[in-house]
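Supplementary Methods S3. Input chains for the assembly prediction are listed below.
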Amino acid sequence: MLTFPRTLVAELRKTATLPGSLAALAVASVGPLGISLLNSMGVRNALRSGQPDLVAYTSAADAVFSAAPLGTVGAVVLGVIAVSSEYTANTPDAGGGRQITATLTATPSRLAVVAAKATVVALLVLATAAVTIPVCLGAANLVLGGLGTPADVGDTVARGVGAAVYWTLTALMVLAITVLTRNGIGPLIAGIVNSSLVSVSVLLSHVTPLAYYLPDLAGMRLFADDSIATFDGALDPIPGGLVMATWALGLLAISSVVFTRRDA
Amino acid sequence: MTARRHRLRRATTAELIKLRGLPAALAAMLATVVAGALFAAADPAGPAQAVPFLQIGPIVLGVLVVAAEYSGRQIATTLIAMPRRLVLLAGKAGAYLIAATATSVITIGGWLVPGRPAGRWTVIGAAAYLVLMGLLALGLTVLLRSLVLPLAGLLTLVLVVSPLLAGYTEHARWLPDQAGRALSQPHGDFTTGAAILLAWTASVAAAGTVAFLSRDA
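Predicted structure tokens for the full assembly:
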């Protein structure tokens, strides 16, 4: 157990220095900021011209949280490449090996590897969210001036924390799935599709209300309210967040078991 | 002329054989066909609602046809076997078009079953849209020489950014997917949509071709 901090630092170094990580974190920070600015400018223009019915919402908070899916996309990319980079074959000039063999030689405890990777990804996503969401809220408020509908501060903070939790849990889920598939394509596609507005889970919710227990829809109310997405049967923030967390922990548990028992 | 046509046919055949060896590409094609059949059964009115989901398949296919060359250095082997880069690209595009057209036609075919109300043009337009979006993905991957970047980038554009922007500004209709969507809608502006989508695909393909011809592999 004494070696775990070292494993953690090693995984942090590996993950943070992937070129894709930088791109993922850039998507998760610059993306929501850009869309928040566009949204709030749209709201401002509609309010100034006296046509508030042109926009779906009139508060700065809604302008920001409707941009949250882009943060989810960044989290998905980070969660996938943190694991898939270990399995990408090197160039034949360098022996064509995979980094996972070096990783497991250095850290034979497989559980420690998975735990460290999950911790690092969660920390990076949370840190990005901690910077991005307040900046977006500040920018949207600045654009709207005093025009927007004032939102309850406690409510906005809760939704901000909710969005950060949603991003983190999504990253952990795709990380766990990538440990299982040992290849990034499938988890990447599934993650991006289900963080989008045309999610498969939303389609399934038309067929059966059980779809609201699928991870991406269960956690939806953590940051989205009716002005962003109207789902009559959606779970409330706390139960929904718990369902989503159960999915994430369950998938992590399965992938840890598989990873410890199978050949790399 | 005959020699050139012969070369092109051989390049296309070689690329088709390589494509057949990619499990992810076969999975993408199969998943698209199955999803198309399910959508056609659930919503027989027309493919417009299904196209945003179905386009994932051709995009994955277009990215994989090229990206598989760059995971490892298969591209070096390929260029030794086929030093004419323009012929190689044409062969790749040809193999993609054969695979994607077959997939799209079968996928969209579910709406052509007799007695279905879907208009003939929306069905043809939807199939053309799927093929063209994948061709756009192929051109982008030639340009970027990577798997994750074009795949994540294009999927994010069509599934997340484009709907968000469409809610903000009418100028989002110039995006390739928003413009091309008109092809599958009963009352869409067919010609304008097709022209915008073709312009996107052609310019990305041209940029990819120039880059592929002029730079080191």
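The interface with chain A takes residues 24, 52-53, 56, 60, 64, 71-73, 147-149, 151-152, 155-156, 159-161, 163-165, 167-169 of chain B (CB under 8 Å). DSSP finds ten helices and no strands in chain B.
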